[in-house]
Amino acid sequence: MSDAQDDKPTHCLLGHRMFSMFRDPVFRRTDTDATPVLVVRMGEREATMPLRSIQRELGITDDSADGQMLILIADALDFVPLLRIGDKLPPEVLDGGASWAPEPHHLRRALMRLHMQLVAWMQGTDQAAPTALDADSIARAENDPVLRQHIQEAFQRAAEALGLASKEAVIAQLESLAGELAYIEALRDRLLERVRAMAGAIERMVRGVPLDAGQRSQLNRLAFLGGEALRQLSHRFDEQDAQAGEVMAVLRHLESHRGFIRSNRDWLYRSHLAWEPILAGWDKALEDPSADRRGLLTQTYQFLARRYMPVTEWLKATKAPKKADIGVRMMW
Questions:
Q1: What is d(CA 54, CA 64) in angstroms, rounded to the nearest whole number?
Q2: Which of 19, 113, 182, 272 could lock onto 191 through a cystine, CB 3.0 to 4.6 A?
């Protein structure tokens, strides 16, 4: 390990005396625009100071120890809700690890997908594993003697193609890769499938709920935004699946592909954190069809409009010049 790596800070520590003047200061992001801020108690009141403003006021440069720490804190707040002085920084900003864990069935699913992709490679087919494998299909595959034999043959063929000493070396690489892809499988369940369920519920409301013209127009706009959110998230998973589907190419360049997977993992996890309050509301609403959804619909529209509304709609709302760019933006 290099000296630079040894010297990299692992905990939230700041040297400027200003940070020790307050009792229990907290770093977090604002609810309105996700700005990284320092929150301190001043008597009965709470004061919020953007980190960039603190840097300017105190003359802390980006290349100083405190400047580097403030950058790490801002990055860390993408993955944890808050930090206090002395807290350990999350693995995402330290070594590329993760501050959360998938469940065992996500690892099992990721490994089965890789096994099936390796068999497809051996057989020279373009057929990849299904985008999603449920528990029953995985169990059937694991208990299929023909498939098990094909998997063992694929291990041996892959070892020969990769110049590895034995199929056990291939198995070890696949298990390491599955450990990374298990996070993608977890986020497929925790984010993509829940957004799909939400979008489907809104579409059913459009088709099945009696509405006046104004209500229908608003619900149609919400359905459009929900569909756009689902399309963009699906595309992100499709890109990851396509990359991982080239299993032999991934095994030949495992470390570089590991970086790609982790980048997607972190992007999707940040998205999941932003979505979670909305999705939790829809989880409850889908469990109780009789529940009043008006507040949830308003909250969902506000959330989606900030992230998925076409720029032309924003231009109308803000009376921007007509020649502005047209497209769809998403911001977290």
A1: 14
A2: 272
How are strands ordered across the β-sheet holding 36-42?
Answer: 45-50, 36-42, 26-29, 82-84
Please give the residue range of the domain that contains residue 11: 3-94
In the predicted model, is pLDDT for residue 320 greater than 70? no
Pairing of strands 26-29, 36-42: antiparallel
Q: Name the more confident of 5 and 205.
A: 205
CA quadruple 172, 176, 178, 181: dihedral, nearest 10: -160
**pTM of this structure:** 0.84
User: Of 231, 235, 234, 236, which is closest to residue 260 (Cα–Cα)?
Assistant: 236
Q: Are residues 201 and 297 in the same domain?
A: yes
Last residue of a domain, one of 137, 168, 199: 168
Calpha distance 265→89 (Å, rounded): 18
Helices (H) and strands (E) in the chain, counts: 14, 4
Q: Are 27 and 39 in contact (CB under 8 A)?
A: yes
Residue 199 near residue 229 (C-beta atoms within 8 A): yes
Same domain, 157 and 181: no
- Position 328 in a domain: no
Q: Pick the residue with more confidence: 8 or 230?
A: 230
CA pair distance 77, 273, nearest whole angstrom: 11
In whole angstroms, give the CA distance from residue 225 to residue 214.
Answer: 17
Q: Are residues 214 and 285 in the same domain?
A: yes
Q: How far is CA 5 from CA 8, 9, 95, 97, in A?
A: 5, 9, 10, 15
pLDDT at residue 163, rounded to an integer: 96
Is residue 201 within 8 A of residue 230, CB to CB? The reply is no
- Amino acid identity for residue 69 in this structure: M
- Please state the domain count of the chain: 3
Buried b (16+ CB within 10 A) or exposed e, 95-132: eeebebebeebbbbbbbbbbbbbbbbbbeeeeebbeee
Pairwise CA distance, residues 202 & 228, whole Å: 13
7 Cβ contact list (under 8 Å, min separation 6): none
